[in-house]
Amino acid sequence: MRILILYLSMAAITTMASSQVYFPLHIGDSWGYEDHTSLMCEGTSLIIIIESDSVLNGKRYFKFLGGSVYSGPFVRADSIRVYEFDTSSNSEYVVFDFSASPGDTISMRDNGTKTTIALGNSKFSVGQSVFTIQDSIGVVLWTTQLNWCVFELRGAWIDGRFVTTSVPPNSSAIPRQPILEPNYPNPFNPSTAIRLFVPRQGRASVEIFNSLGQIVQVLFDGILSPGWHTFAWDARNQSSGVYFCRVQTHKSVLSSRLLLIR
Predict the structure, then answer these.
(1) Long-range contacts formed by 201-204: CB under 8 A, 24+ apart
(2) What does the angle CA 63 – CA 65 – CA 68 come to, to the nearest 5 degrees?
(3) Residue 231 belongs to domain spanning
(4) Do residues 34 and 47 make contact, with C-beta atoms less than 8 angstroms apart?
(5) Does residue 9 sit in the same domain as residue 85?
(6) Distance CA 32, CA 3 (A)
(7) Are residues 28 and 89 in the same domain?
């Protein structure tokens, strides 16, 4: 499976009937997904980021880092549809249509080589993939039938706020090992957030080190309950440079790289 297929398109949509914002859209927004159910992709994590915007054929599109799940990285939306821009034909095509009824087929391209089938108000089949969409968050579940991978949203940063999905928990999808997500934003100035999952209650420490291996700050040292935890690091008193976050639990040591830019 190619890496580019791991980037999901997000676009701002407001339905005329309900004023629901299905796809929040801001530069810097990001979504984190993990697969904990399938044999093919179990343990795989995806980070999807809106990196910039562009004007193409007089319309504003938002660019996703590395591309989207469909083809190119450029996406926009009107009141009820998501569009993607095809650079090869210099035209756009519909990806999602929230006015469609279950069973409706949406032609994504003029030649009909790609289509979307509406499975419900917020569920669509696109080729070998099925997307479940939640109001104000975006895609919360992505199932790839080709490889039988199931990517579930674990959290998202939308317009500077951290949100989590309300998809009903699935006991088989609970990670068995601690997970340290990349901090967001990164690079950052002056603060960033670090998100950690622990599968069971126990002692844990979250520490920040500089490039010389010296401890800069201890963000946490104590007992954590099972689940996701977010720690904020305010680095306004630190100089620009590379830092490292180290997480220690009773069985694991995890680390990530942080970049502070003044």
Answers:
(1) 201/225, 201/226, 202/249, 202/250, 203/249, 203/250, 204/178, 204/247, 204/248, 204/249
(2) 75
(3) 179-260
(4) no
(5) yes
(6) 15
(7) yes
pLDDT tens track for 196-254: 888 778 899 999 999 999 999 999 999 988 777 889 999 999 999 999 999 998 888 99
- Residue showing tokens 């674990």: 154
**Tokens read off for 164:** 């989590």
Domain boundary residue among 155, 172, 189?
172
List the structure tokens of 69. 């799940």
Cross-strand pairs, 200: none
Specify whether 256 is located in the same domain as 127: no
Long-range contacts of 234-237 (CB under 8 A, 24+ apart): 234/190, 234/191, 235/188, 235/189, 235/190, 235/191, 235/192, 235/260, 236/190, 236/191
**Distance between CA 54 and CA 2 in Å, rounded?**
25
